[in-house]
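Why show two proteins at once? Because comparison is the fastest way to build intuition. When a single record is shown, students tend to memorize it. When two are placed side by side, the eye starts asking what differs. So, the first record is below.
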Amino acid sequence: MTRRRHRPSCGHCPRVRQLGRDFQAWRASFDQAEESASAGYATERAAWRAGRQAPTFRRYLEQMTGAGWPMSGSWA
């Protein structure tokens, strides 16, 4: 049995794109906070990062656990 091809009406592809956009926004907010805290200096950046983990896609998905969106199709 083969899987049906994705198409705009399938509902899966738009949710995957939205998931990517949400992750990129999450990562950008981390980068912006890091830049404002360090003012471009490597020493301050290292000190700021010492207490924080850089966002990864895996951590993003783990934090989304139980949210029900966007992959499940429920937007609430």
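Second record. Ask yourself what differs from the first in the token line.
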Amino acid sequence: MAERFAECVTALESTLSTWRAAERLVEVDLAAGPGWPSRRGLVLGADAALDLGSPAVGSLAFLLWSAAESGTRRRAWRLGPDVSDLAAASREASLGLVIHVRGEPPRDSAEEYARYIDLRQALYSITPDGVTLRSMPSQQHLWLRIHRDAVARGFTLAHLGATLSDALLGLPFAREVDLLFVTAGPEALAPLRPLGRDVHRRVGALVKRHEEERAECAECEYQDICDEKEHPA
């Protein structure tokens, strides 16, 4: 079975290489992130220091996965300011989040679908204290409302990254997690949008195959993806 996101991973690495060459990427030290408390709560607009990825300014968030050999590793980078600088400059900022999980290859499409559900649930179940997460996975939209007290206590993208990677690496099949945060403005998301659309279609094909009762392959908008998966060049 061909890897679903092989071409997407190549495109992502190419984009990261371009940004590294331009010295635009900053490595996020996830070792500085563990320890932020978890508590479910609702951050009201009046109490927020920052709306990161709000509908007014936009966001792009998507998840892809591939195989890994062994070991456990987590890495993160950001393109743009961290939370405190964003909050000091404006009440709202755009957000890009790309998550690449590597792990044991699935045995078949059914197992791949089950793992996608587990990854999605792990991602959207995080509850960092002082942060409300709102998501619309079907539109690749993620909105984080961050309380002013959380910003005052030093909440950073390292804390968010550590929380995310802990949740994802808690799954038995996950071995490595790479995170990319893009906070440099809506225009910085443009190079990622074609990749996001490609990932969205590939996930859509997987979900449709396992959630629809009848398969109308001849009329399906994802037929090219299924052909590519089952009959790789």
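One difference worth noting in the second protein: Residues 36 and 159 are 6 Å apart (CA to CA).
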